């Protein structure tokens, strides 16, 4: 099951471009961010990010999740 926290973490990783920067913004550890993204990827059965050196880029699946995730977070607020 997807939860809103996972979607929030996903959005912050996308905005910051890295797991480490997202961890800092969310007051989490980098492994904690990785765990949330991995759990979301496992549920969806697809990778959301391509890891590139010190940053990440969205995959096609990640790009397709971006707007629905934003809408759900906005609705939850």
List keywords for this structure.
77 residues, two-stranded antiparallel sheet, 2 strands
Q: Would you kindly provide a written description of the structure presented here, covering whatever features stand out?
A:
The chain is mainly α and 77 residues long. Helix content is 69%, strand content 10%. A two-stranded antiparallel sheet has the order 1-2. The relative contact order is 0.19.
The major sheet is characterized as: 2 strands, antiparallel
In angstroms, what is the radius of gyration? 11 Å
What's the order of the H and E elements?
A: HHHEEH
- Tell me, briefly, the overall form: globular
Helix content: 55-70%
Average residue pLDDT: 96
Termini separation comes to 20 Å
The helix count comes to 4
Uncertain segments = none
Strand order of the largest sheet: 1-2
Q: Would you report the number of β strands?
A: 2
What structural category do the secondary elements indicate? mainly alpha
What percentage of amino acids are in beta strands? 5-15%
Task: Give a topology summary.
Layout: H1 4-16, H2 19-26, H3 30-44, E1 49-52, E2 55-58, H4 60-76
Antiparallel strand pairs: 1-2
Question: Nutshell version of this structure?
Answer:
The chain is mainly alpha-helical and 77 residues long. It has helices spanning 4-16, 19-26, 30-44, 60-76; strands at residues 49-52, 55-58. A hairpin with a 2-residue loop joins β1 (49-52) and β2.
């Amino acid at each position: 099951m997807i939860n809103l926290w996972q979607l929030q973490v996903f959005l912050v990783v996308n905005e910051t471009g890295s797991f480490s920067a997202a961890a800092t913004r969310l007051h989490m550890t980098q492994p904690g961010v990785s765990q949330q993204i991995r759990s979301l990827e496992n549920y969806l059965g697809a990778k959301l990010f391509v890891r590139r050196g010190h940053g990440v880029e969205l995959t096609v699946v990640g790009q397709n999740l971006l707007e629905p995730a934003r809408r759900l977070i906005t609705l939850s607020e």
